[in-house]
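To close the chapter, one final illustration. This time we ask the reader to focus less on the individual chains and more on the assembly as a whole: which components sit near each other, and how the overall shape emerges from the parts.
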Amino acid sequence: MGPVEGLNMPLEEAMRTQRAIRRLRPDPVDDALVLHLIELALKAPTGSNAQNWEFVVVKDPAVKARLAALNRRAWRVYGGIGRRMAKRADDRAMLRIIEAVQWQADHFVEIPVLVVACLKTLILPWPPIAAASAYGSIFPSVQNLLLAARAAGLGAALITLPLWSRFLARRALGLPWNVAPCAVVPLGWPLGRYGPTHRRPVEEVVSLNRYGNRALRPAH
Amino acid sequence: MGPVEGLNMPLEEAMRTQRAIRRLRPDPVDDALVLHLIELALKAPTGSNAQNWEFVVVKDPAVKARLAALNRRAWRVYGGIGRRMAKRADDRAMLRIIEAVQWQADHFVEIPVLVVACLKTLILPWPPIAAASAYGSIFPSVQNLLLAARAAGLGAALITLPLWSRFLARRALGLPWNVAPCAVVPLGWPLGRYGPTHRRPVEEVVSLNRYGNRALRPAH
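The assembled structure is written out below.
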């Protein structure tokens, strides 16, 4: 089955088998497929239907190298802390994630496509709901992109580390001051595999009417 | 086809026909179905796989009334401005949206289920990427909820107006200070219909390598 036909995957199956795939082959990904996935990303809602998004598709090794350097700088600090914490707690699942993120950092320039999802708006830091509403206009589209990548058989993940400095990320991508980079989705044919994920049980995170009232239980 | 079988809808079809459905029937929605949708929401990614979300399912008319009052207060200001702007520009599509939001505000307490998606974390206002990363751990799950609702045939929309004051929204829902309400999804059997949506063409919002380089064109 080709990647475009894969987009007919049943919705529930796509959701249940979506996971971050960080180890990717360097083989190219068709522009037409990337555009198809972004077109589906644009089907997500935006506040007041503003559609105030911008997507930068990065394939140029020079631009990838600048994002790779930003990613490495942030990962050196953040990954170091994470590794120490995971080792101390003997958290093997977390250590496996950390190894995959390390692989991604080491091979960042070889990743065939980086999609940078941006908001074309001023994100007000206050009141808090203003920021929530702004990000609520970009992350639903990023999730569409991740689900569509999964259905098409492309590896993908949602990362923000290369954007730790918006100033430097804007410079790397030539973004004007009113376009804010929010997330990076590295895309490529996977070395890893998709498959079912484990999550906390729903009854532990759902309250009825008032926080903490764990009265709802799934039937199964 | 029952709502649960509907979740087998092809992914691309679900995405292409997802739209905000604000006019909802007052008929009840099964708890089991709501939990099923939230379980699929939990399949979305979270930063460092923290799964630091909380969902409050509001069915109690007294709690709905408090959120309805908050929504009304914000809508009075925001909707008034929107209506004047849309009338001045003779923007009929926007006026139709405004009428639907007005209907929603007028019938808020009759909506059978309100799902409030929350983050259990401190959302740092600075650096900007900290806030982006935090909201990037809740809005992908909200998008899963919206897509799953669409596939199940339930009407749904993503709104933030009832949360304009986090202080008052926390009081209405009994949320502690470290749980931040981020979005409300009103759910119910639709009076309106799902169907294809219109978006800006992908080539207008995609740049290659550098912002503004509109070199990528879809094949069709």
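Chain B is about 45% helix and 10% strand. Chain B has one domain: 3-204. With these observations in hand, you are ready for the problems at the end of the chapter.
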